[in-house]
Write a structure and sequence with these properties.
It is a single chain. The chain has eight helices and 27 strands. By secondary structure, the protein is of the alpha+beta class. The structure holds the ligand O=C(O)/C=C/C(=O)CC(=O)CC(=O)O, calcium ion and magnesium ion. Magnesium ion binds next to loops. InterPro entries: Fumarylacetoacetase, Fumarylacetoacetase-like_C, Fumarylacetoacetase_C_sf, Fumarylacetoacetase_N, Fumarylacetoacetase_N_sf.
Length: 398
């Protein structure tokens, strides 16, 4: 079993098999790239690594754009530096306690797409939003449904989320009114970060997934259900989801997740452009906490559509990829009630409120509520890999 000479607590999210990338700063310093290991951030711009100059910048974009050969070379050299005792003297001065740093948005977000990959989630939302119809639309098992979101409002974990104002219509048929959302919700998702761009007009096959996707983050796609329910027909989500989308500060390299791959069963078999190569489903178990209380454990491994298929679909028309594109899985819900990835599902649109251990009750989020999503996956050698947290606290409407 590979071990680092850096002491790593057994329950750490960040063993040496993980080595996720982020952007950090200490008081008074310029932000720069770092890698998480145990309770430390490794100041990688100071190490003897290929492309070290890329790490002295405020985003990971330059390094992400270099492609999978460079990602692999750096990961392999970094593993050597952190596991071989002979490098201890030169590397140890560049370990900074994580408690001393601020973490920033790790990459400049180019385009943002959100999918709808979980059959359990889509079925639940269909039942809630469209009770008179079949819960899954006729296209659902033929293509990964998605929409383009607002890249400029993707924020890093810890950024406060201001309750949005918008138009909504109370049940009972009165006209719409404008004001703070009364149905503010979360969506627990897994996000994929594109490194290598592609040319306009050239579709990217799913088999090229690992050449283009740099790594994985956790996503909370904050959603105002009252705004959404009134505005979404017929063009889909707009202001109900564009006010903030939070991401975790660490990008877990795809190579760290090779042991977590799964292939979901799909019936009917999708069209050939969606089945090239082997699937990249990932067995990642998320945990959602509301004010510290666990309210759900959504299993990403149960998602119907995989991120390689989403990539192939997103570019099937020739749309190009840019470094920094972020696409999210869609809300993940498992078959069980305690695996649902949103409050609208957990409380069935507010009709079955949650009783929290602190004695309070929730249908949707209240001002001051803090939601934190974390996750674990299996790494090489059977280790446990974490993703760090994505957290946000609701502030009153401005
Ligand atoms: O079914 C609907 O009309 C709406 C579904 C969603 O709100 C989900 C969405 O944003 C995509 C996802 O996260 O799965
Ligand atoms: Ca979503
Ligand atoms: Mg959003």
């Amino acid at each position: 079993m590979t071990r680092s000479w850096v002491p790593v607590p057994d329950d750490s999210d960040f063993p040496v098999h993980n080595l996720p990338y982020g952007v950090f700063s200490r008081a008074g310093d310029q932000p720069r790239a770092g890698v998480a290991l145990g309770d430390f951030v490794v100041d990688v711009s100071r190490l003897d690594l290929p492309h070290a100059a890329d790490f002295a910048t405020t985003t990971l974009n330059a390094f992400m754009a270099r492609g999978s050969g460079a990602w692999r070379a750096v990961r392999s050299r970094l593993t050597e530096l952190l596991t071989d005792q002979t490098h201890r003297h030169s590397v140890a001065p560049h370990l900074i306690p994580r408690a001393e740093v601020a973490l920033h948005l790790p990459f400049e977000v180019a385009d943002y797409v959100d999918f709808y990959a979980s059959e359990h989630h889509a079925t639940n939302l269909g039942r809630i939003f469209r009770p008179a119809q079949e819960p899954l639309t006729a296209n659902w098992k033929h293509l990964p449904i998605g929409y383009h979101g607002r890249a400029g409002t993707v924020v890093v974990s810890g950024t406060p989320v201001v309750r949005p104002r918008g138009q909504h219509r109370a049940a009972g048929g009165a006209g719409p009114s404008f004001g703070p959302s009364q149905r503010l919700d979360i969506e627990a998702e897994v996000g994929f970060v594109v490194g290598t761009p592609s040319a306009l007009g050239a579709p990217v096959p799913g088999s090229a997934f690992a050449d283009h996707v740099f790594g994985v983050v956790l996503v909370n796609d904050w959603s105002a259900r009252d705004i959404q329910a009134w505005e979404y027909v017929p063009l889909g989500p707009f202001l109900g989801k564009s006010f903030a989308t939070s991401v975790s500060p660490w990008v877990v390299p795809l190579d760290a997740l090779a042991a977590a791959r799964v292939t979901p069963h799909q019936e009917p078999t999708p069209l050939p452009y969606l089945t090239e190569g082997r699937r990249w489903g990932l067995d990642i178990t998320m945990e959602v906490r509301l004010n510290g209380h666990v309210i759900s454990r959504p299993p990403y491994g149960t998602a119907y559509w995989t991120p390689d298929q989403q990539l192939a679909h997103m570019t099937a028309n020739g749309a190009s990829l840019r470094t920094g594109d972020l696409y999210a899985s869609g809300t993940i819900s498992g078959p069980r009630r305690d695996q649902r990835g949103s409050l609208i599902e957990l409380t069935w649109n507010g009709s079955e409120p949650l009783d929290l251990p602190d004695g309070s009750r929730r249908a949707f989020l209240l001002d001051g509520d803090t939601v934190t999503i974390s996750a674990v996956a299996r790494g090489a050698d059977g280790t446990r890999l974490g993703f760090g947290d994505v957290t946000g606290t609701i502030q009153p409407a401005g």
